[in-house]
């Protein structure tokens, strides 16, 4: 919940920077109030939503549907973020319903999964995450091509704490195995992002971990200066 109209200055700067990294897919999911403005201004950026409702319309005051996001210019939406799961009680089934709705509206989806500190300390991290995948991912024919998974250990979000490279590699390998189990061969091509205190200082190391296909960036995406350093870590610039 960050960003007023003044944030368009940073968005335009990020867009200009993204144009210098054509080999990197750069997206921003702003508040709903800025989706249309950013999608109108963007040349290299993909613009998405932070959530959507499972129904296309109806008596759901204050909610935003997937068709509304699409109409505003979004091309994707984030679903099942840990804050939505924790603060709004979103279950795996709710996330799956939203994913189905988003895909039906023509949006791609980023489905978030991740364990709490207590679950990791109890040795349940991989079981929790693969269980979330099983319950949250859409299962329609061709869905795998439009799904991205974001692994975000809840205890690392906004805390400055980051799991070890070995822990990230082990979890992403477990996620990959589950994706192949769910989608068959198509699961091998699903992009898996790492999210959780990603910044300019650790992006190169994290993006170099096997099966890490990108980053879900939080606070470091709020300014062009910090975000474009992460973009640069993902791929070389072209002058």
Q: What key attributes describe this structure?
A:
7 strands, TIM Barrel, alpha/beta, 239 residues
Describe this structure in words.
The chain has helices spanning 8-19, 32-41, 66-72, 82-87, 92-104, 117-121, 125-136, 165-183, 203-207, 224-234; strands spanning 27-28, 46-49, 76-79, 108-113, 147-151, 191-195, 215-216. It is α/β, with parallel strands linked by helices. The mean pLDDT is 96. Helix 9 (203-207) links the parallel strand 6 (191-195) and strand 7 (215-216). The chain has a seven-stranded parallel β-sheet with strand order 1-2-3-4-5-6-7.
In terms of topology, how is this protein built?
Layout (H helix, E strand, L loop, with lengths): L7 H12 L7 E2 L3 H10 L4 E4 L16 H7 L3 E4 L2 H6 L4 H13 L3 E6 L3 H5 L3 H12 L10 E5 L13 H19 L7 E5 L7 H5 L7 E2 L7 H11 L5
Parallel strand pairs: 1-2, 2-3, 3-4, 4-5, 5-6, 6-7
Give a concise summary.
The chain has a single domain (5-234), classed as TIM Barrel, CATH 3.20.20.
Low-confidence stretches: none
Strand content: 5-15%
Apparent shape: globular
CATH fold name, please? Answer: TIM Barrel
Largest sheet: 7 strands, parallel
Q: What is the helix fraction of residues, given as a range?
A: 40-55%
Tell me, rounded to a whole number, the average pLDDT.
96
**SS field, number of helical segments:** 10
Radius of gyration: 17 Å
| Quaternary form | single chain
Q: Kindly report the spatial arrangement of strands forming the biggest sheet.
A: 1-2-3-4-5-6-7
Report the order of strands and helices: HEHEHEHHEHHEHEHEH
CATH architecture: Alpha-Beta Barrel
Instruction: Please tell me the total number of domains.
Output: 1
CATH superfamily: Aldolase class I
Distance between the termini: 34 Å
């Amino acid at each position: 919940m960050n960003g007023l109209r003044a944030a368009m200055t940073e968005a335009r700067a990020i867009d200009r920077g993204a144009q210098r990294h054509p080999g990197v897919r750069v997206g921003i999911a702003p508040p709903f109030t800025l989706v249309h403005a950013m999608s109108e201004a963007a040349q290299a950026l993909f613009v998405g939503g932070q959530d959507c409702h499972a129904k296309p319309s109806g008596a759901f005051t204050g909610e935003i549907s997937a068709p509304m996001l699409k109409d505003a210019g979004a091309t994707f939406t984030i679903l099942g973020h840990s804050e939505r799961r924790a603060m709004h009680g979103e279950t795996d089934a709710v996330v799956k319903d939203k994913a189905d709705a988003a895909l039906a509206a023509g949006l791609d989806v980023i489905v978030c999964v991740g364990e709490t500190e207590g679950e990791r300390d109890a040795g349940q991290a991989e079981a929790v995450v693969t269980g979330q995948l099983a319950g949250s991912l859409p299962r329609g024919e061709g869905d795998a091509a439009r799904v991205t998974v974001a692994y975000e250990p809840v205890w690392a979000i906004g805390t400055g704490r980051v799991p070890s490279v070995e822990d990230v590699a082990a979890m992403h390998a477990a996620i990959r195995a589950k994706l192949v189990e769910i989608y068959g061969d198509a699961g091998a091509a699903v992009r898996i992002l790492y999210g959780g205190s990603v910044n300019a200082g650790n992006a190169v190391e994290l993006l170099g971990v096997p099966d890490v296909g990108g980053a879900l960036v939080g606070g470091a995406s709020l300014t062009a200066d910090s975000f474009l350093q992460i973009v640069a870590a993902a791929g070389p610039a072209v002058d």
